[in-house]
């Protein structure tokens, strides 16, 4: 609407502008012709009598019309006396709008004449019909532009005032018939939102607002009905939940106990496997030691008999001494091997069962773990590489690390390689900013992309038919994230095995 009013006002102003411009131009031309005719009539006698001052006064008086920029007379009569083609005189307005004498030698005057808006010229003849002078009136458009600018200014002010009036009127109308009703609907919707469903809805306004008010009322009634039905359902469901809550709590408790038992069973199975492996490893050095002692006893009895019967020679005694030294060295070596195995087993088994925190060197402890599971790894074609260039002292839970390393290696042996297949297991340990970084790799078959995200889920296994419980990696994940306050990730690059990365603090809380 405002745009339409502005357009109509602009068209009306344009019409007024053009008609006023034509009127002013017509009036200027009429004034010019009338003035020229008057000057032509009055100035001829002064020119003939060479009365220059007289006709200059006439010219000055004629300049009362503000649109006259200059009046110039070319006096051929006076010019003949002065020896010129013509004597040029007249009046012109300067930059301050002051009437001054025209000077034909003044370049500024001549340039100003060239920029005049309109020029009118008349010739003055004597009685013989000869041209004795010419009068030129130069008209400026300055006055016309001033008048037109006034029209434009009035038009702009008129348009602004009309627009303000229309906008104010529209604002009042919109406020009464739209904004106030909408604000009422907003307040009503707020009351309904706050639970006051008995709010009266009777908003008056435009037809659309009243229709919206009616729709609000229908919506409120539907909400009341829905809430009533929902309350009945909630009450019914609450009763059902209360009835089944005791059974559910008991089921959850049973599941927790079952999970604890399964975890303990997994740990005991691991410990049992460790015991069997260590027992098998101890059997060899103990058997060799027993054989050596038996042989030593036998040669000692023979030497004693020879000594008692005086049949012992120096060569026999020297042979006995040499054999005894060899047997003693063999027995000592195997007994030391047995002691080392027992100490490693004792420390690892105690750590797995006690879960106490203590200070330990992780690299040395890793060697003990590898020694305790040597019975498993020696039956494979796998090489275990340890990369640890520094001594890593930790104040943590060694049994947890035993579980971690044992689980990783056992998983690689059982899942990553075929029987008697060659491979490499890599364990890299380094410290950074008081954190231990443990990277375990194998170059086996890897883990399928579809099951990789599930490897840490409880009871997930691909080896259930061979006794897999699916708790191994889940236990590792829980003890790393909960007990050690660290993180663990699993990656399996295509055809490049599996990579486990663990980051934990050097000092556990």
Task: Report what the structure shows.
The chain is α+β, with helices and mostly antiparallel strands and 509 residues long. It has eleven helices and twelve strands. It has helices at 2-48, 52-62, 76-82, 107-114, 142-193, 207-308, 314-354, 362-372, 374-377, 398-416, 472-483; strands at 68-75, 87-93, 99-101, 118-125, 131-139, 358-361, 381-387, 393-396, 422-432, 435-442, 487-491, 498-505. It has a five-stranded antiparallel β-sheet. Helix 6 (207-308) packs antiparallel against helix 7. The protein is elongated.
Keywords:
alpha+beta; elongated; 509 residues
Quick description:
By secondary structure, the chain is an alpha+beta fold.
Strand content: 15-25%
Query: N-to-C SSE series?
Result: HHEHEEHEEHHHEHHEEHEEHEE
* Rg from alpha-carbon coordinates: 60 Å
Largest sheet: 5 strands, antiparallel
| Coarse morphology | elongated
Strand order of the largest sheet: 3-2-1-5-4
Low-confidence stretches: none
């Amino acid at each position: 609407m405002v745009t339409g009013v502005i357009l109509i006002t602009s068209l009306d102003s344009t019409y007024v502008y053009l008609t006023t411009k034509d009127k002013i131009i017509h009036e200027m031309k009429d004034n010019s012709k009338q003035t020229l005719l008057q000057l032509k009539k009055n100035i001829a006698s002064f020119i003939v009598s060479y009365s220059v001052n007289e006709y200059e006064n006439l010219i000055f008086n004629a300049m009362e019309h503000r649109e006259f920029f200059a009046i110039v007379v070319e006096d051929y009569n006076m010019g003949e006396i002065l020896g010129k083609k013509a004597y040029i005189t007249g009046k012109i307005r300067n930059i301050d709008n002051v009437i001054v004498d025209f000077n034909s030698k003044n370049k500024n005057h001549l340039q100003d004449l060239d920029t005049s808006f309109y020029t009118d010229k008349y010739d003055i003849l004597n009685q013989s019909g000869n041209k004795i002078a010419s009068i030129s009136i130069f008209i400026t458009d300055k006055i016309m532009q001033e008048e037109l600018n006034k029209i434009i200014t009035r038009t702009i002010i008129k348009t602004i005032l009309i627009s303000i009036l229309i906008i104010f009127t529209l604002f009042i109308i919109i406020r009464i018939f739209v904004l106030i009703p909408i604000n009422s609907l907003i307040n009503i919707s707020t009351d309904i939102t706050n639970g006051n469903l008995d709010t009266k809805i009777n908003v008056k306004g435009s037809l659309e607002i009243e229709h919206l008010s009616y729709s609000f009322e229908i919506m409120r009634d539907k909400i009341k009905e829905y809430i009533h039905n929902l309350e009945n359902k909630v009450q019914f469901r609450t009763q059902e939940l209360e009835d089944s809550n005791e059974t559910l709590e008991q089921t959850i408790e049973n599941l927790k106990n079952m999970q604890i038992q399964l975890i303990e069973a997994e740990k005991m199975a691991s410990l049992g496997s460790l015991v069997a492996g260590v027992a098998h490893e101890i059997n060899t050095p103990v058997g060799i030691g027993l054989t050596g002692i038996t042989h030593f006893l036998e040669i000692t009895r023979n030497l004693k008999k020879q000594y008692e019967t005086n049949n012992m020679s120096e060569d026999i005694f020297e042979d006995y001494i040499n054999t005894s030294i060899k047997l003693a060295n063999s027995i000592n070596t195997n007994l030391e091997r047995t002691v080392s195995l027992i100490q490693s087993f004792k420390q690892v088994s105690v750590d797995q069962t006690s879960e106490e925190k203590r200070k330990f060197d992780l690299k040395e402890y890793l060697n003990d773990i590898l020694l305790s599971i040597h019975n498993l790894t020696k039956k494979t074609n796998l090489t275990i590489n340890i990369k640890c260039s520094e001594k890593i002292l930790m104040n943590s839970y060694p049994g947890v690390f035993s579980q971690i390393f044992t689980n990783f290696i056992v998983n690689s042996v059982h899942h990553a390689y075929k029987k008697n297949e060659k491979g490499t297991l890599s364990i890299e340990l380094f410290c950074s900013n008081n954190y231990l970084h443990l990277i375990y790799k194998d170059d086996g078959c890897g883990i399928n992309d579809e099951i990789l995200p599930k490897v840490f889920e409880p009871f997930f296994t691909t080896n259930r038919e061979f006794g897999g419980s699916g708790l191994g990696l889940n236990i590792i994940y829980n003890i790393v994230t909960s007990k050690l306050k660290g993180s663990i990730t699993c990656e399996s690059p295509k055809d490049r095995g599996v990579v486990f990365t663990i980051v934990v603090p050097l000092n556990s809380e």
